[in-house]
Amino acid sequence: MSVLHSVLLSTRPKQWIKNLVVFLALMFTANQYWSLADPSRFVNLAGRTLLAFVLFCLTTGSVYLINDVVDIKKDQEHPTKRFRPLPSGKLKVSQAIVAAVCLILVSAGFSFWLETSLGFLVMGYFLLMLAYSYLLKHIVIIDVFTIAAGFMLRVVAGAAVIQVPISPWLYICTILGALFLGFTKRRHELVLLNDDATRHRPILEQYTPGLLEQMIAVVTPSTVIAYSLYTFSAENLPKNHAMMLTIPFVLYGVFRYLYLVHTKNQGGSPEEALLRDVPLMVNIALWVLVSVLILLVFRHQ
Predict the structure, then answer these.
(1) SS3 string of 91-108?
(2) At what angle do helices 40-70 and 116-134 cross, to 10 degrees?
(3) Could you tell me which CATH class the domain 1-166 is placed in?
(4) pLDDT tens, 107-155?
(5) How far apart are CA 102 and CA 11, in angstroms?
(6) Rounded to an integer, what distance in angstroms lies between the CA atom of residue 100 and that of residue 63?
(7) What gap in Å lies between CA 100 and CA 70, rounded to an integer?
(8) Distance in angstroms (rounded) separating the CA atoms of residues 199 and 248
(9) Is it the case that residue 90 has pLDDT exceeding 80?
């Protein structure tokens, strides 16, 4: 395996799917910019958002490399992580550090060139994740909130790069959704690793399955309620409340994911669940399609 290939694997391409949240701002403001007569403005904004997505992929790749360097000893004893290039010895620590520095320098440079505020958000995300790798992941509850904050920064970046305001409801939905995924992941790790859980991730000593179940029970209905309120209260959405038609897709998505967590033991990797579970993929695709159609068809109502 070449060094370049090992670096690519260490940036965890499957997890780049999380960066798709940068498109949310474009998606929910499409009705303001799309025009069949002159689609050029929307195409330009879509191009800027796509570039922001790529830059966040470079940034998260840098973070994953650094995180693997920090956790290399623990990962060597993990049942699945030990096969990653760094803990398996296929990639040297020095090579990983050089690659991480190069990725963040390229990402930050292009981010500031594209939009100054985007540059600050990219650097803010990077510094937050560094703090997570070295400190915040060892503080109970704050560890999951930090992950949620990372998602929030990506959503804000998606709005900043196209210079549009974003509804506070979308912030709330993003944070709650990220907490939902974070707490289900912690639960999966406890169940998967059993007595070895705290050895691989020390913070798990502060959690119990019962505590995590209660936390999940809080954020799950909160996420659904927040999204439901968003569909008929956000100023940029159609005034006829047609976006409420998308609520069933969100409900099904939440229930389907809980089904995968509790019966298929897939809560440890949200991106894997998304890429492997056909019903979940179809549901998300339908949610996006219906949302965009509603925003475009009823944009003047």
Answers:
(1) CCHHHHHHHHHHHHHHHH
(2) 20
(3) mainly alpha
(4) 999 999 999 999 999 999 999 999 998 889 889 999 999 999 999 999 9
(5) 13
(6) 7
(7) 13
(8) 40
(9) yes
